[in-house]
Amino acid sequence: MSFDTLGLSAAVLRAVAEQxxxxxxxIQRQAIPVILAGGDILAGAQxxxxxxxGFTLPLLQLLNARPHAGGRRHVRALILAPTRELAAQVGDSxxxxxxxxxxxxxxxxxxxxxxxxxxxxxxxxDILIATPGRLLDHVAQKNxxxxxxxxxxxxxxxxxxxxxxxxxxxxxxxxxxxxxxNLLFSATFxxxxxxxxxxxxxxxxxxEVARRNTAAETVTQTIHPVDRTRxxxxxxxxxxxxxxRQVLVFTRTKHGADRLARQLESDGIRCAAIHGNKSQGARTxxxxxxxxxxxxxxxxxxxxxRGIDIDQLPHVVNFELPNVPEDYVHRIGRTGRAGNEGxxxxxVCVDELKLLQDIERVIKRPxxxxxxPGYEPDPSIKPEPILNGRGASGGGRNPPSRSAGQRPGGxxxxxxxxxxxxxxxPQGGRPGTSRPQGMHRSGSRGGA
Length: 448
Ligand code: AMP
Hints:
By secondary structure, the protein is an alpha/beta fold. It has 17 helices and 13 strands.
């Protein structure tokens, strides 16, 4: 099936062809005709499925086909995203797919100066891509008028809720006109998302797709059992001996990411860390250096890495297993994209065997163990509790999960603020997921 049959205009199809896409992905096939017909959608889709083009292409076409009524350009489509990185990437997609259309878009997020954003908003924008907190700052300063939004997109809605944005989102919703089209994308469907969807969507089409490349197809997964104190040494050895040129390494905490990046540097591996406490400039630079290959290892926390789209990422390493099994699926989804082979390696110490069990239960299969000669675990070492957050070797002493429904404070999450704010997000602890009626579990979650 080609893109031509979806009802997209020549200008949009041209941009798609220039991106090198020849066939729509399943979510694009399902979502584009519904959106073009003006319907709401509730889509279960993760990064990697092509969801961004799935909502961006029809959105661009709809706006272009209904030129704004005379006068000044005003915001007609709002795309909310949980993180700066995701907002920036969606912004890039909107610009790329809309390059042959006379529409203007802007990306606004926290952590960078507000004045250039004010100037951009003043010049007039049709499509605004924003993180919730900074958007509300602009609303408070009357820099932006949301009363004429025709299309609202909530991207990665579950992450936005996880990050404590629900109040911000509700405040934003209250500023929008009642008559509008709503598109909600979420990888999981905890009760809070269902409630949000119920209050937001009108007779939505339910769309559920598996990952474009399920982990089972393209990602080789391996566990290297190793002692807790020898993980860094083993990682340096693997990067060096296997000549990995580009490796994304996950740690559980921001502090752990910084520490590991310093240690790898001292082992002679060009390295950078990205997480919520880094300035936007530092994060953008680190990502650019990593993409170009001047930085060989990028150490990241789950939140910071979410939404990063790096084509053909060959290696992902779980330096520490995530507390939430679903995060494992997200992490390894960073490799083996677009049909490229990928390898996901997890360094697992005796403390993490329970986490490993949970992961294997979620992905419904055992991950092969492979002891690296010279790094055999010492069987006399006893498991220790895993410490998360600030203070410990990987953070403080918060329990790894919070109970369902408990949210980090009423204020704005640190990720949407300028760096150095000192706020701490409880790690992990995603509420249980369940599906709205009529939706099936996605392949990536169940059968990856
Ligand atoms: P997303 O799920 O929106 O993050 O997209 C994942 C990746 O797939 C991005 O690198 C897109 O550029 C790419 N992509 C999106 N649609 C297509 C398509 N129809 N064919 C090939 N690649 C695509």
